[in-house]
TrEMBL record, chain A:
<feature type="domain" description="Small ribosomal subunit protein uS7">
    <location>
        <begin position="77"/>
        <end position="227"/>
    </location>
</feature>
<dbReference type="Pfam" id="PF00177">
    <property type="entry name" value="Ribosomal_S7"/>
</dbReference>
<dbReference type="GO" id="GO:0005840">
    <property type="term" value="C:ribosome"/>
</dbReference>
<dbReference type="InterPro" id="IPR023798">
    <property type="entry name" value="Ribosomal_uS7_dom"/>
</dbReference>
<dbReference type="GO" id="GO:1990904">
    <property type="term" value="C:ribonucleoprotein complex"/>
</dbReference>
<protein>
    <submittedName>
        <fullName>28S ribosomal protein S7, mitochondrial</fullName>
    </submittedName>
</protein>
<dbReference type="GO" id="GO:0006412">
    <property type="term" value="P:translation"/>
</dbReference>
<dbReference type="InterPro" id="IPR000235">
    <property type="entry name" value="Ribosomal_uS7"/>
</dbReference>
<comment type="similarity">
    <text>Belongs to the universal ribosomal protein uS7 family.</text>
</comment>
TrEMBL record, chain B:
<dbReference type="GO" id="GO:0005761">
    <property type="term" value="C:mitochondrial ribosome"/>
</dbReference>
<dbReference type="GO" id="GO:0003723">
    <property type="term" value="F:RNA binding"/>
</dbReference>
<dbReference type="GO" id="GO:0032543">
    <property type="term" value="P:mitochondrial translation"/>
</dbReference>
<dbReference type="InterPro" id="IPR033620">
    <property type="entry name" value="Ribosomal_mS37_met"/>
</dbReference>
<protein>
    <submittedName>
        <fullName>Uncharacterized protein LOC108668963</fullName>
    </submittedName>
</protein>
<dbReference type="GO" id="GO:0005654">
    <property type="term" value="C:nucleoplasm"/>
</dbReference>
Amino acid sequence: MLKNFLLSQQISSIGSRFPAAPAQFAVRSYAIYSPDKYLEPIYEKEQLEEIFQNKEIKERLQFSQIKPAEQSRSWSFFDHPRVNRLCNYVMKEGNKVLARNLVEETFTRIKRKQLRAYHTAETDEERRNIVCDPLTIYLGAVENCRPFLDLLPIKRGGITYQVPVPMSEKHSYFIATRWLVHAGRDRPTRRVHFPENLANELIDAFYGRGRVVQQKNDLHKQCEANRAYAHYR
Amino acid sequence: MHTTPVNCAKMFTKKTYGGKSFPGPGGRYAQPFGGYPTTGRGPTLLPFPFVPIRDLKLKDRVSGKFDQETNTKCLHEMAVLLACYKKHDFAQAPCAVEATSLTNCHNKIREEIVTRKAKEKVGDMNPGAKRLNRRQVNSLLQRYPQKIDEEVYGKPRN
């Protein structure tokens, strides 16, 4: 006991001579703000103005707890929630700077490709079909790749059936974006960079062709083939 | 192959390990049953003492894990959408109306589930209801817990 006491004294004296490394605080995630106590922050300026005008909502919100605003969100001209999502799906190992750069590069390449197509087009009709806004192309591509049905493995009588079920809107957006990112990662050769490949996939998907639209159609085809199991859910 | 002979008679006598914990399988729990190892080799003492390990009663709560409804809704909308897809070779544009109707149906059911779960969470009793959810059953069971007559059934060992 005494020995232990002395030892601890010794350790503490050493500690005083060599000050310990700065205390490492655990990174507290956003998840600590439980959704039943905290409200989501509002980023859209128009929504905020609406709230300020409505007295009832304003009084209700004044005394309720609200989550801190996310660092990555803003209401600038360049901010878009779906583009933000794309950055997050592209991101690997939390490297958001790289992910944002890759998405920016992708959009740049889309713009360049579409402008080239626009200027090389010969007739006005062709030109009318060419969209040069990368954001429109990205949103349209996701909309075209969005599946409405999903297959859910359900066990009945020892056999697992792939049962078609309706997909929620949020999940379908997630699935479509993830498919696009995975298609972008699956490059034909190593010389084709990720932004280049993703730009190609997005443009293809926007015009309703390409691998990801095919993937969506395949899923729907499988759902159609398994429609007899729909009541198993 | 040469093996050392084991003196079984010595092993099963009470004196060898009396008072101490038995070194074989079963440990000290082998003691109340006459000092035999619980390998199933020794003869059972008769009458065999019945020692209840746990309370001889059911618990005052249910988990309700398997009380999940099968969600066979929106089937008509889904069938219509699939038929439309088959007709138009899985093109998206001609089946937009069917797709939105399915999405609306799904959203409606999700909202219903949320409101129903919020109601269930409160655990209020509906007088005259034949089918109770797990929170209602639990609140009833907590209000009238089961009793056990220890003189008849004995005290649980643990």
